[in-house]
Amino acid sequence: MTTARPPIQGVTTLPARSVLPRLAVSSGTLEALKWMGLVLMTLDHINKHLFDAKLPGVFEAGRICMPIFGFVLAYNLARPGAMLRGTHLHAMKRLAIFGTIATPFIAGLGGLVSGWWPLNIMFTLLVATGTIYLIEKGGIAHLVAAALLSFFGGMFVEFWWNALTFCLAAWWYCKTPNWSALLMGLVATASLFFINGNFWAFAALPFIFMAPHFKLNVPRIRYVFYIYYPAHLAILFLIKK
């Protein structure tokens, strides 16, 4: 007879109907995923803003970015002791600062639905992190606040509730691998069709689920994602101008 694997020490677990294999990704491999997302994001933005989205296959490849970034964030927030170390609060501060810095460049580049709306991916990850933080805090008041934040926040950020749901599902799965979290993640990924117009977001999942099988030695450069995001948009803005 087999028994369910015990939860990671120091991490609050969520209800699960069935336990699945835990994703244990090395720091180097996680960095490799992040760099893959950055490269694809950059190519996607170059294609959109400098080539009128005419480069073949680049738009499709760019749909992989959001699930990759969402997973990396979720994995880090689900690490043992993340709440005690202040990981959530530090991430929210950086996402808010660099998301704000990037906003005028994105608005200047154009291509948004309306003026400044929706807010860029940094704010999407900010709302997801804030929602997860409130859920981690526990208690009825915090859970209600988490629901309100995700509902109203989803109105204003890139990829809307679809991305928030994916981030929450990824975090839930990383904390307590189970069928409910997996199904939630798959549904969220499929729902990105209504934004992307295709199912290319699913192409991110093989990279995510294969990541534990590779031990890549990619060094972590602190704050590179936060700095790179507004920086590359500023460069594109100056080129386009």
TrEMBL record:
The chain crosses the membrane at residues 95-113, 119-135, 147-173, 179-209, 221-239. Keywords: Membrane, Transmembrane, Transmembrane helix. The keyword Secreted does not apply. Coiled coil: none annotated. This is TraX protein.
